Automatic annotation (TrEMBL), chain A:
<dbReference type="GO" id="GO:0072546">
    <property type="term" value="C:EMC complex"/>
</dbReference>
<keyword id="KW-1133">Transmembrane helix</keyword>
<dbReference type="GO" id="GO:0022890">
    <property type="term" value="F:inorganic cation transmembrane transporter activity"/>
</dbReference>
<feature type="transmembrane region" description="Helical">
    <location>
        <begin position="42"/>
        <end position="61"/>
    </location>
</feature>
<protein>
    <submittedName>
        <fullName>Membrane magnesium transporter</fullName>
    </submittedName>
</protein>
<dbReference type="GO" id="GO:0005886">
    <property type="term" value="C:plasma membrane"/>
</dbReference>
<keyword id="KW-0812">Transmembrane</keyword>
<dbReference type="GO" id="GO:0005769">
    <property type="term" value="C:early endosome"/>
</dbReference>
<dbReference type="GO" id="GO:0005794">
    <property type="term" value="C:Golgi apparatus"/>
</dbReference>
UniProtKB/TrEMBL annotation, chain B:
<comment type="similarity">
    <text>Belongs to the EMC6 family.</text>
</comment>
<dbReference type="InterPro" id="IPR029008">
    <property type="entry name" value="EMC6-like"/>
</dbReference>
<dbReference type="GO" id="GO:0072546">
    <property type="term" value="C:EMC complex"/>
</dbReference>
<keyword id="KW-0256">Endoplasmic reticulum</keyword>
<keyword id="KW-0812">Transmembrane</keyword>
<dbReference type="InterPro" id="IPR008504">
    <property type="entry name" value="Emc6"/>
</dbReference>
<feature type="compositionally biased region" description="Basic and acidic residues">
    <location>
        <begin position="1"/>
        <end position="16"/>
    </location>
</feature>
<dbReference type="GO" id="GO:0034975">
    <property type="term" value="P:protein folding in endoplasmic reticulum"/>
</dbReference>
<keyword id="KW-0472">Membrane</keyword>
Amino acid sequence: MGFGFALGVFGGLILAHAAYATIQYRGMLKIVEEEFSGPPMNVVVELLLGLALCMWAGLAAPTKFLSILPDSDENRIVSLPTNLDFMIFNHRGRVFPSSDAELKLKSKS
Amino acid sequence: MAANEDSRSSDRKSADDSDDLPIFNAENLQSNMKSIYYSRTFLSIIGGVVAGIWGFTGLTGFVFYFLIMAVASLGLAAKAKFSVHTYFDSWNRILVDGVLGGLMSFVLFWTFAYDIVHIF
């Protein structure tokens, strides 16, 4: 975030300098009485550089994309309940002789 | 009988699956779209300034705008690591959304920069 923002500011400064250089170039053209037929080479390079920097900044500076799939790694809830130590899985049922196998054995004998 | 019932229920289940809308995390989808909107607005403003300084007039400027938006779409797809369906529900969100919305800011800043640099 900070890096992208700094790139954007730098790109903006480069664009401002390109604008200033173009204004000066036009002033020079006015003195030598020639027609404007496109910005000079250094301005073009500055424009492309500023555009590239600002494009990088514009793509990188906003928030990162977040996954929208409900079962992706970031959206999954994996925390166990915190009171696991207090859960009891014993109950009184185990004192009764209730399995089917035993009943069958008894009926056979 | 039981098997018959089972097959019917499985049929119904598969029909449900095909009818079911895919489930998205709407909050994250909205955040992603907002991120795209910010990127496009910023890039249309910057593109307008560049087009103005460069001295584009007429159709060339619009061609330049759509060129920038195409590059922006490519960049956004790269930001989504080209697995668009992880982050958006369709390709249109990346490729098309907000292209015409930024045109007005582009024209505004284009004329603004052109006036400052070339006319005044």
